[in-house]
Amino acid sequence: MRQPMEEGLNVIGTILDKTEDTLHFVGCFCLIVVVVLINADILLRLFFNVPVQFQFELTELYLMPALATLSLSRVFRSGGHLALDFMPEHLPGAFGRFVTKTRLLLPAAFFGAVTYMAGKFAFLAFLHGDVEYGVVNWPLGWAYAVVPVGCGVLVLRLLYDAFVKDAPESTQS
Prior knowledge:
By secondary structure, the chain is mostly helical. Helices cover 74% and strands 2% of the residues. It is built from 5 helices and 2 strands, in the order H-H-H-H-E-E-H. A hairpin with a 5-residue loop joins strand 1 and strand 2 (138-139). The longest helix is centred in the first third of the chain and has 47 residues, at 2-48.
């Protein structure tokens, strides 16, 4: 009986990994686009006195939020975030399991709240047709949507690690 459940959890983990990798790729691509646009703007201003008119709004509204949030979960999975450790990462026994789960569930609650509020904000922007007027009229719903997507996947990763991933003490003898 336990075998199909474990296979199902492995499938969920695989789907989560692939989702994180895809979002991370998109976030990294956004970074490349930011670099290209800013450098193109600088060079065109310097040599031809012609700016890239849409660069600032595109970078500020769409690319920066995407590169800041879409990679959150993938970077967490790989242990790439900065952290302040004030106690050992793995503690033995029930207290260790409590600390491990708490270290995952507290950030999950925080990022769950961020996901909810950002999702509500994005939904209202879509609903009201909010637009940033400029050289190009930028629909803001799409600009805001990346934050709940990136934070939401991080919440799923934190919950998966808290409840599904093998506990560290199960590998210790």
